[in-house]
Amino acid sequence: MTREPLYVADFQQESFQKDRTSVDVVCAGDSITGWNNYGPVRCWPFPTYPHFLQSLCDPQGLRIADGGIAGEISDNGLGHVRHYLDLFPNSRYFIIGFGTNDLGTWPDLESTSKRIIDNLGGMVQAVRDQGKLPILFNVPYANELAFPPHIAEDTHARRDFHNERLRQYCDDREIPLTNVCSHLRDEHFGDELHPNESGAKIIAEEVFKVFCLVHGAGQSTRQGNP
Fold this sequence. Notes:
Blueprint: E1 6-7, H1 14-19, E2 25-29, H2 49-57, E3 64-66, H3 77-87, E4 93-97, H4 100-105, H5 109-129, E5 133-137, H6 149-173, E6 177-178, H7 197-222
Parallel strand pairs: 1-3, 2-3, 2-4, 4-5, 5-6
Helix pairs in contact: 2-7, 3-5, 5-6
């Protein structure tokens, strides 16, 4: 039987406090990652990728924690990451995704993209400072059928602009980056911005591919292999 991720929304439960030291992989981000500020997972409006990532990681015996906060912007990401570093002390990997809400909040694209990337860089550094491995993922396209054509075109272009700069940043600093954006289509969304079940599965599958590469490299390093 597949386990559920550990949800930050369940922080007050005794089972959470018991299981938090067994978490291997922490997922941090906005509502693409989770709706923990909405209460228990049964109250969430859409499924999120950590649920499906847990199924993919089960054969390796790895436990996932879902720390996504709906509506969150990247300015607050470092605070969440630092909190989760304390909350899940034995974790080894952090999967981080922010930027959707930033791009929809501030009109100046160039400065907003830089702001997101600078904030993500701070989160990556905090994770690395604790001897853990970060993985980022880029900002998905929106459900363009839900918008007038001129807004859909602008939204698409804003993602392309930001995601290319994020890719360059990660390449320069050897930060693992998952390209979820190019794998999602309009039919993979439940509303204008949020993936439906099929979309969440796709994100989990793409994240898992990159995670396996990072996990394998981490295992080799710990075992002293070249």
